Amino acid sequence: MCGIVGYVGDNQAAPFLLEGLSKLEYRGYDSAGIAVFDGKGIRVEKSVGRLAALRDKIKDNMPVGTIGIGHTRWATHGRPSDRNAHPHTDCSGDFVIVHNGIIENYLSLKEELIETGHDFKSETDTEVVAHLLEEVYNGDFVSSVREVLRRIEGSYSLVFMSKKHPEELICTKQDNPLVIGIGEGENFIASDIPAIIARTRRTYIMNDGELAVVTKDAIKITNRAGEPVTKKVFEVNWNAEAAEKGGYEHFMLKEIHEQPKAVRDTMSQRIAKDGKSIVMKELKWDADYLNSFRKVHMVACGTAYHAALVGKFYIERLARIPVEVDVASEFRYRQPIVDESTLLIVVSQSGETSDTLAALKESKRLGAKTLALTNVVGSSIAREADQVLYTWAGPEIAVASTKAYTTQIILFFMLALYMAELKGSQTPEAVESLIGKLKEIPAQIGETLSDVEPIKTFAKQYGFNEDVFYIGRSLDYEVALEGALKLKEISYIHAEAYAAGELKHGTLALIVEGVPVIALATQKSVYEKTLSNIKEVKARDAVVIGIAAQGNTDLEKYVDHVIYIPNTDELLIPILAVVPLQLLAYYAAITRGCDVDKPRNLAKSVTVE
Ligand code: AGP
Questions:
Q1: Three-state secondary-structure class, residue 313
Q2: In which band, very low, low, confident or very high, does the pLDDT at 155 lie, cut at 50, 70 and 90?
Q3: Per DSSP, which regions of 273-332 are E strands?
Q4: What is d(CA 106, CA 112) in angstroms, rounded to the nearest whole number?
């Protein structure tokens, strides 16, 4: 997720570009840049690091001009660096662009363009767009941009500027946000409303496929077919802070609702076009490489550890490779049996958790091959590991991890399938069937998010209890662990997750009248067993909220309430089952007046041991 801005008008462009980017840093902040037409050429200034580094670089020599574009980056392809920072240009510097999203076919386009003599300066997918425009340019800016859009695949918000057309900016979008701010003698373009709200509250919200030609006095919008589009002006009545959260009250709620897109982006480019296999361009493993490992060992903390537990289940079930899982703070101190026959996988949203980084370094010292699953390109863990798989969830601002967890799980599922194909432990039919179900997950998450009212009601009803229990068996237990952590860390309720079959070995003593128990009962293979554990707690007059797959109305006979989630393969259900638990924690925290995005005693990234 990146932030893009554009300006054309009577005033200097640079001040708005920098001000707008400062309001979009929550969308990405590993590098920034601006480009301004100064009457002769387009001056591009960019810098790795936060926007402050760019400001510092140009403060004594601000670019001059009244038309320009800018970008603040969240790296997906190519680590954070000056040369990977946007804006990107073609060979001649006549065309300059900024981009938010992922150009999925950039590698093949880049190869073609290099063959025709284009000289690339960066490792990014975005730069391909600038050279493609140079390649197809026919003298008409709009039709040339349309030809570029016909050839690229993926998700994008793009702003184009050209020395040959110094009065206008062209912007367009597909699956990424883009708004146009309507000014007096000036107009603004941005990924999101926060960037322009200080200049104007009158906006056009762009739709997929629409293309706008923006000059200082006019905004001409056409659809994919080139036909004029008449748009209603959207008057923004948010305050600036609410705008950063996209209108949501907290970043956590915004990020919960971003999960369909985050999961879709993480899956993109990793499923073969024919839907029959998983593609892991970053790994390039073969069967011999995989068979050289006696086991997989996973290490992580907190939510990432819970995702690793699900990853263990997937790899053992699908690829039949033994997997151990440790919390990072324990791993190093028990003399783990790790050597060159171990594939060590670390999981970390931030890529900076010191316990996890230390475990990674220790494992490398012991001879293990290492793979990192992380959300931050160029993070310490990403740089330390031998290989890296990125979740493309975009920045996660709230301390409580949500979209990182679901994207980590989806990535583990794809990794397990990839390993299974290499080992031949699953038939091609089974793999294709599971991929078919995988593709439905983003929409099913959206369906789960479509009706939060019952969960709000439960949170109000039970939000003041001091003890809540989460129980489940098999994958339901792994998800129960994550649900309990969410509730604990943002509502400060003492929540505990327990393997349902383990209750009678002690914890049942704590179950008394009125104690809320969240019972996950989505795993068909152990449903009857889970049901007997639910009866155990009901016999002690607990209040039971069941989590069940749609269609399983049987559960209603045994619990007080049921929250249904869409049905899918029981291996994939954890990605859906966790969503109501995230929402339950969120609304319980609201009920208790807690600071949802910044809970007491906690930090987003724990960089101390
Ligand atoms: C989860 O909601 C917490 N923020 C915390 O447990 C977190 O998952 C843990 O600190 C690990 O962080 P990482 O994924 O950035 O390594």
A1: helix
A2: confident
A3: 295-300, 323-327
A4: 10
Q: How far is the CA of 417 from the centre of ligand 1 (A)?
A: 25
Write down the mean pLDDT value for the chain: 94
Identify the structural domains of the chain with CATH numbers, from first to last.
2-243 (3.60.20.10), 251-448 (3.40.50.10490), 453-591 (3.40.50.10490)
- Going edge to edge, which strands form the sheet with 561-565? 494-499, 467-472, 516-520, 543-549, 561-565
Residue 39: other Cβ atoms inside 10 A? 8
**pLDDT at position 138:** 96
375 lines ligand 1 (CB under 6 A): no
Residue 588 pLDDT greater than 80, yes or no: yes
Placement of tokens 């016999």 in the chain: 539
Q: What is the pLDDT of residues 395-422, one digit of tens each?
A: 888 999 999 999 999 999 999 999 999 9
Cα–Cα distance, 263 to 267 (Å, whole number): 6
Quickly list DSSP for 524-551: GGGHHHHHHHHHHHHTTT-EEEEEEETT
Q: Do 559 and 534 form a contact (C-beta atoms < 8 A)?
A: yes
Q: Which of 252, 256, 303 to mutate to test the pocket of ligand 1 (most atoms within 8 A of CB)?
A: 303
Q: Does 350 contact ligand 1 (Cβ within 6 A)?
A: yes
How much of the chain is helix, strand and coil, in % rounded to 5? 40, 25, 40
Q: Is 353 in the pocket of ligand 1 (CB under 6 A)?
A: yes
